[in-house]
Amino acid sequence: MHSTELSKQHWLLILTLSLLTFVLGTSEFVIVGILTDISSSLNMTNVKTGTLVSAFAITFAIATPLVMSVTSHLPKRKWMLFLIASFIILNALCVISTSYIMLLTLRIMTAIVTGVLISLAMIVASETIPIKKRGLAISFVFGGFTLANVVGVPIGIVIADDYGWNATFMLTTFLGGLAFLASFFVLPHKLSQVRSSIRDQFSLLTKPRILMAFFIPALGFGATYAVFTYLVPILKEMGTPNKSISIILFSYGFISIFSNILAGKIASQNAIGRLRFVFLVQAVVLTSLFWTTNQFVLGLINIGLMSLMAILLTTSTQLYLIDLAGIYQPKATGLAASLMPVASNVGIAFGSALGGIVYHQGNLMNVAWVGGIIAVCASLLTFFSHQLDQKQNTSE
């Protein structure tokens, strides 16, 4: 596309894809808030019910790139509509689920559908929006997840409190229906369709530049979650009243909306070049928590800045992976689009685990140093990757 302006049809598509990610995000994240309700209803321990979360994450990370590779030849519009319809059916079955095994199976299947739909949404946004507006479009699509955390999840939890956890899945089923209708009328009919072998797809993962790009968001998310995972204990150590913690967490999610907007700005030009310094700022913000949390107000301001920095990397790294695939293996852009969500899950698991090890070894606030060090590593990797880009551009 040569136009640099967004038409009404472009905006309809962006909002439709954002609605889709909002629905998918609500379905994925709300389970954490209703675990105790499910435990009580199905007479299980909270630990066993927690496997609904871990199974979803593991399936998402493993299955998404595999399914994207195997189905790369399918017409995107029909495939997306089929997946959204499958999402609706799976969530409807969760409403009537009466056993742990049934619910676990449904959540695993939903994880596969979710991962593939997210990847396809990113590809469609990247392919159909004018190149200079791709950053804005992708940031809106990612914004659906942010809104899911800020709006969708709380609503789902309130519904579970009033009507039971099954009713929460009625909500996600209904939202899935809205996403299907919007997608049916708005998704373009002529979307790219690339026929390639699984070997072509997975050859992408043998490219060192792709692996480097994969670990940039993994380290970026790892830096945040080394601290965020233990934010509630940190708030309690700061002397935060229990009743105020939920308000602070809501505010954290609200601030991340602005982080998502800034992510689109960063991605608009020289994204990886800018991201080098974003990670350095993130390192300062995270490390500063070691001192600022000694004072309640300063600590809250610092936590707000942490939220603002948290997802500045998303849009840039998503587009970077797709663009690199276009250079090294054009037939594998579908697989490339799935790598950022997978990287984020890897980073969350890695950061949480590393932060947990340090936390249990001594001072809780040492997790701030862990987060800062990981962010510096992300910056160094981004510096190196950007340098290689510059050399490649010069040689061409």
From TrEMBL:
User: What keywords is this UniProt entry annotated with?
Assistant: Cell membrane, Membrane, Transmembrane, Transmembrane helix, Transport
Domain Major facilitator superfamily (MFS) profile residue range list: 13-390
**Positions of transmembrane segments:** 12-35, 47-67, 79-102, 108-125, 137-159, 165-189, 210-232, 244-263, 275-293, 299-322, 334-358, 364-384
Q: Where in the cell is it found?
A: Cell membrane
What membrane topology does the UniProt entry give?
Multi-pass membrane protein
Question: Looking at the keywords, is Transport present?
Answer: yes
Q: Which domain of life is it from?
A: Bacteria
A GO CC term attached to the entry: plasma membrane
Read off the SUPFAM superfamilies from this record.
Answer: MFS general substrate transporter
Listed GO MF terms: transmembrane transporter activity
Q: Which InterPro entries does the entry link to? A: MFS (IPR011701), MFS_dom (IPR020846), MFS_Efflux_Transporters (IPR050189), MFS_trans_sf (IPR036259)
Q: Pfam families per the record? A: MFS_1
Record PANTHER family: INNER MEMBRANE TRANSPORT PROTEIN YDHP, PURINE EFFLUX PUMP PBUE
What is this protein called in UniProt?
Answer: Inner membrane transport protein ydhP
Originating organism: Solibacillus isronensis B3W22
Q: Which gene encodes it?
A: ydhP_2
